[in-house]
Design goal:
346 residues, alpha/beta, Rossmann fold, Dihydrodipicolinate Reductase, domain 2, 2 domains, 6-stranded parallel β-sheet, 12 helices, 31% helix, 21% strand, binds NADPH dihydro-nicotinamide-adenine-dinucleotide phosphate, binds N-acetyl-L-glutamyl 5-phosphate, AGPR_dimerisation_dom
Length: 346
């Protein structure tokens, strides 16, 4: 069988590099072209020497990537995806955006939280936002896929079963998330400088992070009512991983056993979501370098508050792995193709 030709725009960034790394082990695709603005003409292995002798492809430009690929991943900061999406759409190619340009259905939310506007409104109508475990049916005939944010992925997977069951008091949701430093990308930023974050631990963008409207849109869709949340992210001085801890009130007669039953039922056919046994707590080290998501459930019987802990690798299930999962479904490939790696213990 001919391999599908895939291109990666922005391959020198963390998300782009992770897509390349995963695609190199994918059984059904070949990487046709990769691009960079800053390093065009250089090999990706010159920037990332771990690829030496394994992958020696020369970086080209965006136009060549689009021209020679059937599927295009854009791994750029937000605000850059529309023109590339348009070219791909007009040529009938599958476009997958790693950034936020197609994630929010309401343009006013995008304006408010990202400070831009939708120039190509038709493209936004055609775009499909997809966390596969929650929205996979949307991918039938999709030509533009908005890959979800890393925090919203961990939070939505953690809360979906209890919201769908209608037993959560949606006015009480508090979310406390921690992300490894790769979440901030490769660009230089003071807060991810080694001496600034090592040995430290602090929240940032408290109740003002731009993932808030995305989280609320996904949760409202599942709960079938408007959900607002308090969301506080923290920077954790590790390379990879997200731990999201969600607090939500449930009725006094709800038991941990009943709630566990809801989660088991909801995720019974999902390969990548694992519900941990009673008493265990999810730990980011157990999902690193993999597409798995671990969920642990804890009911505080004194306060009738359900506490859900959800961990993912921000670079894999929170970015590149989920994008490949979405691509696989959209192309009719095996959903887990290229994503079956087992998490290492350390
Ligand atoms: N890191 C993560 O955990 C996640 C990231 N994402 C999203 O993926 C996208 C890429 O993120 P990430 O890889 O982390 O970011 P990086 O900063 O690591 O990489 C972005 C890359 O885009 C390229 N680029 C092209 N044009 C510009 C420009 N005008 N300004 C800056 N960079 C430009 C740069 O490469 P060059 O100069 O070589 O072209 C750069 O390396 C973002 O939209 C991000 O929000 C989504 C989920 C998780
Ligand atoms: C630690 C850290 O800085 N994390 C990033 C996560 C955002 C991200 O990665 O981008 P997406 O919106 O595409 O998911 C942040 O808080 O901005």
């Amino acid at each position: 069988m001919n391999r599908i030709k895939v291109g990666v725009i922005g391959a020198t960034g963390y998300a782009g590099l992770e897509i390349v790394r995963l695609l190199l082990s994918h059984p059904n695709v070949e990487i046709a072209q990769i691009s960079s603005v800053s390093y065009e003409g250089k090999k990706l292995s010159e920037i990332y020497p771990q690829l030496t002798g394994i992958y020696e492809k020369v970086l080209t430009n965006d136009a060549v990537v689009v021209e020679e690929s059937q599927v295009v991943f854009a791994c750029l900061p937000h605000g850059h995806a529309e023109p590339i999406a348009k070219k791909c759409f007009d040529q009938g190619k599958l476009f997958i955006d790693m950034g936020a340009d197609f994630r929010l259905s309401k343009e006013e939310d995008y304006k408010q939280w990202y400070g831009g506007q939708y120039e190509e409104k038709g493209l936004h109508k055609a775009a499909v936002y997809c966390i596969p475990e929650l929205h996979r049916d949307r991918l039938k005939n999709a030509k533009i896929i908005a890959n979800p944010g890393c925090y919203p992925t961990s939070i939505s997977l953690g809360l979906a079963p209890v919201l769908k069951a209608g037993i959560a008091d949606v006015s009480t949701i508090v979310i406390d998330s921690k992300s490894g430093a790769t979440g901030a990308g490769r660009g230089l930023a003071l807060n991810t400088h080694y001496t600034e974050c090592n040995e430290g631990f602090s929240p940032y963008k408290v109740a003002s992070h731009r993932h808030t409207p995305e989280i609320e849109e996904v949760l409202s869709g599942i709960a079938k009512q408007e959900v607002t949340v308090t969301f506080v992210p923290h920077l954790l001085a590790v390379n990879r991983g997200i731990v999201s801890t969600m607090y939500v009130n449930v009725p006094p007669d709800a038991t941990e056993e009943t709630i566990r039953g809801l989660y088991e039922e909801f995720y019974k056919n999902e390969r990548f979501v694992k519900l941990l046994p009673a008493g265990a707590a999810a730990n980011l080290k157990n999902v690193k370098y993999s597409n798995y998501c671990h969920i642990s459930l804890h009911l505080d019987n004194r306060t009738h508050r359900l506490i859900v802990v959800c961990t993912i690798d921000n670079m894999v299930k929170g970015a590149a792995g989920q994008a490949i999962q979405n691509m696989n479904i959209a192309l009719g490939l095996e959903e887990a193709a290229g994503l079956t790696m087992v998490p290492p213990a350390f």
